[in-house]
Structures
1.
Amino acid sequence: MHYTINNLLSVNNEIEKKSNNKTNIIAVSKTFPIEKIMPLIEHGHEHFGENKVQEAVEKWSNLKKNFANIKLHLVGKLQTNKVKYVVDLFDYIHSVDNIKLAMKISNEQKKFNKKPKIFIQINIGNEIQKTGINKNELRNFYNSCIELGLDVIGTMCLPPDDGKSELYFSEMKKLNDNLNLKEISMGMSADYLNAIKHGSTFIRIGSKIFGPRS
Ligand SMILES: *Cc1c(COP(=O)(O)O)cnc(C)c1O
């Protein structure tokens, strides 16, 4: 069996033991070539993530035509001039955090007659270097997204790397519940077990499945 499948299965086993709700595993394949992704697709895995639009268009445009069940997730920063490619190719966008971007997605999804599922990214640790909306602005921003016709399904975060991820994950869960949202995108290779403890429904796993990125 290909090593990526073994890795996926062991992550899956761990989370099934520990989580009550259904957790989806997004295999984050950024920087890895199609040859490394193919075994997982043939194994039947559905959720894949990329963080760069150009790389995703090159790798996934044909793959998605051939494997219609694949769901592609944009987990990285999105610039407004790339939105048209993203609405066409991606099924989920995890990084919506400003009104200009929300307006652009609203316009493009009308043109394509296709609504990607949206996560609002929250800057949960208030870090100046990180993107994401401030939690104090979350409700207003959420309301604007709904008025613009965006299909907001949940919130997403990249917590600070300070060993306190559980604190941030539990705060995320509260913010998400306050908006009555069903999905939360949180947890990566280093912290997904903590994330599912606090109700994550989409974990984004890169290196734990594909190995280290060079
Ligand atoms: C790369 C990336 C991941 C996966 O990271 P790993 O630590 O390799 O699991 C998850 N989320 C985002 C936003 C990423 O850019």
Note: The chain is about 45% helix and 20% strand.
2.
Amino acid sequence: MEKRIFNFSAGPAVLPLPVLEQAQRELLVYPGAGASILEISHRSKTFEAVLQQAKDNIRALLQLPDTYKILFCQGGASLQFTMVAMNLLRGDKADYIHTGSWAAKAIEEGKRQGTVHIAWNGKPENFVRVPRSEELQCSADAVYLHFTSNETIQGIEFPEEPASGDVPLVCDASSDFLSRPIAVEKYGLIYAGAQKNVGPAGVAVVIIRDDLLERSAPDLPPLLSYRTLAEHDSLYNTPPCFAIYIIALVTQWLRDSMGGLTGIAEHNRRKAALLYDVIDQSGGFYRGHAQPSSRSLMNVTFRLPNEELEATFVKEAKSRGLDGLKGHRSVGGCRASIYNAMPYEGCVALAEFMKEFQRKNG
Ligand SMILES: *Cc1c(COP(=O)(O)O)cnc(C)c1O
């Protein structure tokens, strides 16, 4: 077998090794099923238990009250940009916080379904930070306030939820879902494409509060309707069974091995600090994109003195088994994605490499 590298890819991204090992052990015969999880009916008792385990784990990790439903949708987080607006906006007005590339996409889709009011726009500052709550210009008549808790491309993250008063928060949490405790009761809806932090591509987790579910438009095509998906417990049609199975394993790993969200948050803080410390102590050789108070604990974005050095950095890192460090094509630079499953040792190795690279090229 070839050696596993440290994978800093932004998504699909690193998964916990114990999860991959368990999936490997169970691939041919899922315990009790006599067949692979890939081969059995989504209506079987076995798969129903897997689905239930995934939901129970997410509920336990977030300490989610009974007034919220957990759904598994297809179409990625991108379809959620549309579904949120189709189900909840529908000709009304919603506030959106514009923090970067993913917020921009959500806004675009919102505009197709109703009036979008930009409560704060980070573009003039080139998306280097998230707003402080007192900077938000919220509308009293908004049906929700949409924000992107972590901008995967720019590497900025809300340290806490924006204040929205009585207006329900709707959050694209794709790239920091289950990475830390959140004040869950502030949210009306949370969605996350699984492939950043909780599983493989092909499924998005949606958490929706009952009153928003009630309000969701009744006349939509079934697969675009939260109401229909909830009524059928995400089994209106064949769901992405394997992806849901992996989510069940990843969330079990978070509970059993990582100390839940408090434990993983501490782990994530320590990992990110290793890299930000190197940036801060480099005398300007590495320049972080994010302002310190908005730094992402999931995606560390930085520049080197010039693009040639950035290319050399990415290439040499790769030859050392540190892969996926090229920044998103739309912004350039470098990016280290260090989601829940990135081991501490991976960040130590990258921090050491960064220091060495500076010594040679600085
Ligand atoms: C990756 C990402 C998306 C898009 O996810 P898809 O599953 O590819 O549609 C949306 N929002 C954020 C914050 C992301 O990181």
Note: The radius of gyration is 21 Å.
